[in-house]
Every structure is written in structure tokens, then in C-alpha cells.
Amino acid sequence: MIGVSSRRMNTRRLIGYLLLNALVSAIVTLSVLWFWDRTHTSPRENPFPILTPSGNNATALSPAGETTLVVPTTVPVPEPTATPTTYVVQSGDTLGVIAERYELAVEDLMAANGLTDPNALSVGQLLIIPVPGSPAASPTEPPPTNAPPLPTATPDPNQPPPQLTIREVRSPGVITNETVVLVNAGGPVNLAGWVIRDATGRHYTFPALTLFTGGAVNLHTGAGADTVTDLYWNQTEAVWTTGTVAQALDTSGTVQARFTVP
Question: Would you give the DSSP letter of residue 92?
Fold first, then answer.
């Protein structure tokens, strides 16, 4: 009996040891798996997919073999801005002449330069010639001082010769109003170097000024600021009296026009 009881006890101990060993093994295995799961990233959660080219686009390839389409971002390219041209007003110029030269409407030329009066031009004034896409200039914006010189137009051989006349001498003897009116009935002429003089030798020399067909320029005896239509002799006393002869001479000294003050 004692031998049978001893064998039963040993069997129970063996079974207990086996169960305890199985339990410990299961706990260790589960702990290892839990630790592995916590410390390793799942392939589906890989934050750095591998890009492979595919035509104009690219695909993201994950370790699990799944692909995701990645569309590239297009950066817009700004359109070039047109740069306006500048023009320096010459004597005899008008807004209409300048606008016609550049194939513009007078209104567009005025808007680009902030002008409200089409006759408010002065010799040497810098105008902005608008081109498509260029912004209008502010009327208070100072013009650039380094404008390039403008090319000289080639004379048209088919143009008639200039035909200048002294139309009248206004208010002779009155310094504040005395004015010689010179008109051109012929082809365009540059008056630079031309002279208006009286019988005593007093004379006025014209600056660079183009007088077009049908154009007129007023030479005031008194002081003032020159414009494209009005020039000032800056004398301190009147020049013209009744019977005085006014002469217009070209650059060669040839008398082209003569007028006797009535």
C-alpha cells in the first residue's frame, strides 16, 4: 500500500511540474510577443513609403506591397510684366502727335501719365508710353532722369518744304502781352538755331522745336516757362513798335519770313 501511495504522489508532483512549466512558458511567450508588437512598426503604418516613378506621377510602395498615388504639386509661374516705354516731349509735340506715333489713344496716354489737360505739356517732360499689361503711372511719381536719347527721325523726301510766315505781332509795346506768332504752312521743320530779330539787331534764337504742317508757335517778349506752343524771350522791356520789321531767319541766315508791325 505504501508503494502505491508513493507512486501516486510522484505522479501528481510530475503533473504539477508540467502544468507549472507550461504556464511559465505561455507567460514568457505572450510577454515576448507583446514586447515585439509594441516595439516594431506595422507595415501598414510605415510613415516613409518608397516612391517609384510612374509616368508624370509617382506611386508610394509600402513593405506590404500596397501602392498609393502621389500627385506632384504644380508651382504656378508668374507671367512676365510688360515694361512701358518713355518719351521726352520735344518742342512742337502734342499729345495727339505722340499718341499717333505710338498707335495709342490719347485717353490711354493721358491715363498712363495722370494727365487731365491734353494741352498741359512742356518741353523736356517725360511721358510714359503704355504697353499692354503695364500699370498706369501715378501723377506724383517722379520721372526717371536717365531716359535714353530718342532716335532722330529720317526726313521724308516726299514732304513739301517748310513755308513759314509771321502771322502777327500781338500787343506791340506792351511787355506783358507782346507776342510774335509764327506759323508753318509747308512741311515739318526743326526750328533749332532759327532766329527772330528786329531792325536794331536784337534777336531770339529758337531751341530744338519741330513745327509741323499747320503748326504755330508763340514767341512772348516777356518772361515765362517754355512749352510746346509758347516760348519766352525773357526781355525786360517791349521790343516791337509800329513800323518795326520782324524777320525770321533760318540756320543759314536766309530770311524766310518778314512782317511789319502795323
Answer: T
- Sheet containing strand 230-232, strands side by side: 164-170, 179-184, 216-220, 230-232
Provide CATH 3.10.350.10 ranges for the chain. Answer: 85-129
What's the DSSP call for residue 178?
Answer: -
Secondary structure of the chain: what % helix, strand, coil (to 5)? 20, 25, 55
CB proximity list for 42: less than 8 A, separation 6 or greater: none
Q: What is the model's pLDDT at position 150?
A: 43
Range list of β-strands (E), the chain: 50-54, 57-61, 67-70, 85-88, 126-129, 164-170, 179-184, 189-190, 195-197, 203-205, 210-211, 216-220, 230-232, 245-249, 255-260
Q: Does domain 85-129 have CATH number 3.10.350.10?
A: yes
pLDDT tens digits, one per residue of 103-133: 888 888 888 888 887 777 777 788 888 876 4
Cell of 161: 518744304
User: What are the residue ranges in the chain where pLDDT is below 70?
Assistant: 1-7, 40-84, 132-157
Q: What is the pLDDT of residues 136-169, one digit of tens each?
A: 444 444 444 454 444 444 455 677 899 999 999 9
164-260 CATH fold: Immunoglobulin-like (2.60.40)
